[in-house]
Design brief:
Blueprint (H helix, E strand, L loop, with lengths): L1 H12 L1 H15 L5 E6 L6 H4 L7 E6 L15 H12 L4 E7 L3 H7 L10 H5 L3 H4 L8 H20 L3 H9 L3 E7 L6 E4 L6 E3 L2
Parallel strand pairs: 1-2, 1-3, 3-4
Antiparallel strand pairs: 4-5, 5-6
């Protein structure tokens, strides 16, 4: 806790005075983010840091590998789906970004399940990426395949978003837009998925 408390004190002395009015506004009038970012839990790829976001700008869902599961009808606990529904239906976000990243451990585990052998709950979660596995199976180079799989899993999550009626209806109506992006941890580069070509292109 020592490091966290030091960080809090630095925040309270530095950033808080500059943004206090924003926090007070958010406290009194609630949050109204325009953007939902669905990202990996990886500590190296924080959406608020990457996009220099102010308080209240981003509604963020983070899980292992930044996966959007398809719509499931059973009554199980659906943390990601519940947060997605809250952001779209209640908060009425206007844009959803699925944000993947380089060197993703969840993607590595999808390719080689031995990496997370013995870790509870991971297997069934990573199995959600199975539909994307075959798309890069022909790539011999391990690093290149990993990168291709990261991009393919972003595309898969975007497809899964459209299985939720409250998402697909708003996309068709033009009130909600979906995007994909991949962040490079080592080089800081951001690739955006081009909607027309389906190709990831670097942000200049």
């Amino acid at each position: 806790m020592k490091r966290l408390l030091e960080g809090y004190r630095a925040f309270k002395a530095g950033r808080w005075p500059k943004e206090r009015a924003d926090y007070e506004e958010l406290a009194h009038h609630g949050q109204h983010p325009e953007y939902l970012v669905i990202a990996c839990s990886d500590s190296r790829a924080d959406p608020a840091t990457i996009f220099s976001a102010a308080p209240g700008e981003l509604f963020v869902i983070r899980n292992v590998a930044g996966i959007v599961p398809p719509l499931e009808a059973d009554s199980g606990h659906r943390g990601t789906s519940a947060a997605l529904a809250f952001a779209v239906v209640q908060l009425k976000v206007r844009e959803i970004l699925v944000l993947g990243h380089a060197q993703c451990g969840g993607i590595a585990a999808a390719i080689d399940g031995r990496l997370v052998a013995g870790v509870p709950f991971i297997d069934s979660w990573i199995d959600l990426l199975t539909p994307a596995l075959g798309l890069s199976a022909h790539i011999r180079d391990e690093s290149q395949r990993h990168t291709a799989m990261e991009r393919d899993c972003i595309r898969l999550s975007l497809e899964n978003l459209l299985t939720f009626p409250f998402v697909s209806e708003r996309v068709k109506a033009g009130t909600l837009r979906l995007h994909g992006a991949r962040f490079g941890i080592a080089d800081g580069k951001l690739e955006i998925l081009d909607e027309k070509s389906g190709v990831f292109r670097l942000v200049e």
